[in-house]
Amino acid sequence: MRFSALSILLNGLRGNRHWSAHWRQPEPKPHYDVVIVGGGGHGLATAYYLSKVFGIRNVAVIEKGYLGSGNIGRNTTIIRSNYLLPGNNPFYEFSMKLWEGLEQDFNFNAMVSQRGVLNLYHSDAQRDAYTRRGNAMRLHGVDAELLDRAQVQAMLPFFDYENARFPIQGGLLQRRGGTVRHDAVAWGYARGADSNGVDIIQNCEVIGIRREGGKAVGVETTRGFIGCNRLALAAAGHSSRVAEMVGLKLPLESHVLQAFVSEGLKPFIDGVVTFGAGHFYVSQSDKGGLVFGGDIDGYNSYAQRGNLATVEHVAEAGKAMIPALSRIRVLRSWGGVMDMSMDGSPIIDKVHLDNLYLNSGWCYGGFKATPASGYCFAHLIARGEPHETARAFRLDRFARGYVIDEKGQGAQPNLH
Ligand SMILES: Cc1cc2nc3c(=O)[nH]c(=O)nc-3n(C[C@H](O)[C@H](O)[C@H](O)COP(=O)(O)OP(=O)(O)OC[C@H]3O[C@@H](n4cnc5c(N)ncnc54)[C@H](O)[C@@H]3O)c2cc1C
Fold first, then answer.
1. Which ranges does the record mark as transmembrane (predicted)?
2. Distant-in-sequence, close-in-space partners of 367: CB < 8 Å, separation ≥ 6
3. Residues with Cβ within 6 A of ligand 1?
4. How confident is the model at residue 196 (pLDDT cuts 50, 70, 90)?
5. Which of 204, 364, 416 to mutate to test the pocket of ligand 1 (most atoms within 8 A of CB)?
6. Which residue of 71, 157, 248, 344 has the lowest C-beta tally within 10 Å?
7. Could you give the count of Cα atoms lying within 13 Å of 407 in the half-sphere of its Cβ?
8. How far apart are the CA of 123 and the centre of ligand 1, in A?
9. What is the rounded distance in angstroms from the CA atom of residue 260 to the CA atom of residue 286?
10. Which among 161, 158, 155 has a CA at the least distance from the CA of 116?
């Protein structure tokens, strides 16, 4: 079933009773060419590109819950490619280009909205750092504009420009950044992969990995054994647990990241804005709710909920940026489990078994990476060599000392 203006019109005239399911609910087959563990954004995107671009269609995505139950349906929907370092910049720009054509490509409305991402600066030193980042972006062909205080104030009049501690001096703007409806991304990739023949097996947990010699020959699941020629791990916050099944210890820690949404308000924030003097970011949804978040909860956890100390911390940073926030009501908050790597950058690599591939370490920035991550992981699985934009995301970089520390924080996963 393809969406078109005509199909929407005809189905509307027939009372919308004839749409078919977007993907099948297949029984697992005994064996696949490729089994992907994790039906989040990255696992589904990998299956989509494997089947569409690389012609590998005998693929299963094994998901322990339902599609969208992980971080793909929990994030704050921000996309951007405003990176400084050469290891990151081309990859995230590749992702941005894929976002720009994604809805046409998978024939699904994911509400890709390039409404801009603005990072505020509050001191001369921070302005200099943002100038450097903006210049690096432009040298890589990525759009970046440095705005002064008057330009920011014209865009965002309700912010606190007189704050004694954190006066807003300006911001670094990427106009092509923005937001995308996160669960629609999972649905679009699932639908596209399914129509190419991929089996998406929900409510099926991988509980073990069977090895023979130097190979992974399949996965033990709650629905029985499923064999494969190649095994790909894309379990995000649970990567360490899944990798442990083959004795692989990853340089990752799992932490909770919370997000919040307020009651609906009249439009007053066009794009995404981040506070430069603390960790707080906000955008306004099409329904008018403010969608915001901040730091991760600073302890290791696999729970999809956080604690009140972080709620207070996020609210304080938000109020320093927009004093009127103290008068709005928060409708909902939730949490997701982040696979925080030691340098804040991801891992897309072939690992110690002959046919085992790893995709992890997305920290709290993996949503924007979804298309490129899926494409590059599929490239690695199909061709056996990394895609040119993902060459730096090797697992052994931690042993070799070639870390990609975008924030310059050192080996502190809770600070990236
Ligand atoms: C509150 C919050 C806000 C965020 N905001 C942003 C943002 O604005 N921009 C951005 O770029 N990123 C953001 N992120 C990060 C982003 O969501 C993640 O980095 C990204 O979604 C992770 O990849 P994924 O979609 O594949 O993860 P997931 O959707 O978590 O997929 C992993 C899947 O693996 C499954 N799984 C795990 N173990 C097993 C097993 N044993 N067997 C079978 N299946 C298993 C899980 O059930 C899960 O569905 C945010 C995250 C959170 C939680």
1. none
2. 41, 71, 72, 75, 77, 78, 79, 180, 182, 185
3. 37-43, 62-65, 69-72, 74-78, 205-206, 234-238, 242, 257-259, 293, 336, 362, 364-368
4. very high
5. 364
6. 157
7. 17
8. 34
9. 15
10. 155
CA of 334 to the centre of ligand 1 (A): 13
The rounded distance, in Å, linking the Cα atoms of 72 and 196 is: 21
Q: Are 252 and 358 in contact (CB under 8 A)?
A: no
> Is the predicted pLDDT of residue 98 greater than 90, yes or no?
yes
- In contact, 355 and 217? CB cutoff 8 Å: no
Question: For 299, phi and psi rounded to 5 degrees?
Answer: -130, 160
The single residue listed with the structure tokens 């302890």 is: 299
| Stated length of the chain | 416
When pLDDT is cut at 50, 70 and 90, the band that residue 51 belongs to is very high
Which amino acid, residue 49? Answer: Y
Q: Is the separation of the CB atoms in 359 and 234 below 8 Å?
A: yes
pTM comes to: 0.97
Mutate to test the pocket of ligand 1, among 48, 62, 69, 71 (most ligand atoms within 8 A of CB): 71
What are φ and ψ of residue 272, in 5° steps?
A: -100, 135
Q: How far is the CA of 196 from the centre of ligand 1 (A)?
A: 24
Q: Detail the DSSP E strand segments found in 157-279.
A: 170-174, 178-179, 199-201, 206-212, 215-221, 224-233, 252-264, 272-275
Rounded mean pLDDT, 93-98:
98
Index of the ligand 1 atom closest to the CA of residue 363 = 19
User: Contact 114/178 with Cβ under 8 angstroms?
Assistant: yes
**Is there a contact between 281 and 294 (Cβ–Cβ < 8 Å)?**
yes
